[in-house]
Backbone:
């Protein structure tokens, strides 16, 4: 358990370095998306892409730039034979059954994690890279603005986990000492 606590402290340092990198990303020049390879180090970077045509739509619960609850409207775009498709969150609507009329075109915004429906327990046993999407800025006309890039959306709870493991180790030592005392 002490080893796990030390490991979490090491992970904390790694996460703080990543968060510092992400803070810088917001001020870097825009990149063309989709770019391969994609990684967490591109999160919050300004990006642009050309959506030839939305191949499909989805909506996810979320909130707009003012914090009002709504439905994130996500277009799944074709880019043609020259590369992989991508997703773009084009804005936030007040109803889940909103059907945007957007037919594609140039989009600008920042990179964020796409909605992920992987169960928490599955994430513990395998590290699957999360997919990035463009969060459009400005949004499609008629939809509410997307929330801005937010560093607080990237969890950094490694210190709490480290403390938890050290407390578990301390409790185990106390139980062991009590068992020895009762035996003797």
Residues:
């Amino acid at each position: 358990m002490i080893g796990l606590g030390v490991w979490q402290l090491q992970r904390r340092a790694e996460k703080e370095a990543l968060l510092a990198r992400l803070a810088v990303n917001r001020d870097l020049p825009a990149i063309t998306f989709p770019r391969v390879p994609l990684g967490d180090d591109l999160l919050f970077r300004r990006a642009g892409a050309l959506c030839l045509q939305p191949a499909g739509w989805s909506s996810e619960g979320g909130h707009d730039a003012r914090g009002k609850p709504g439905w994130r409207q996500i277009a799944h775009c074709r880019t043609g034979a020259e590369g992989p498709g991508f997703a773009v969150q084009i804005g936030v609507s007040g109803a889940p059954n909103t059907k945007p009329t957007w037919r594609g075109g140039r989009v600008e915004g920042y990179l964020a994690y796409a909605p992920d429906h992987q169960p928490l327990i599955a994430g513990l046993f395998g590290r699957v890279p999360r997919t990035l999407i463009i969060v459009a800025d400005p949004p499609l006309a008629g939809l509410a603005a997307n929330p801005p890039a937010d560093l607080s959306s990237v969890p950094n709870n490694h210190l709490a986990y480290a403390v938890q493991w050290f407390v578990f180790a301390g409790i185990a030592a106390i139980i062991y000492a009590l068992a020895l005392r009762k035996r003797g």
About this structure: The chain has three helices and seven strands. Residues 123 and 170 are 28 Å apart (CA to CA).
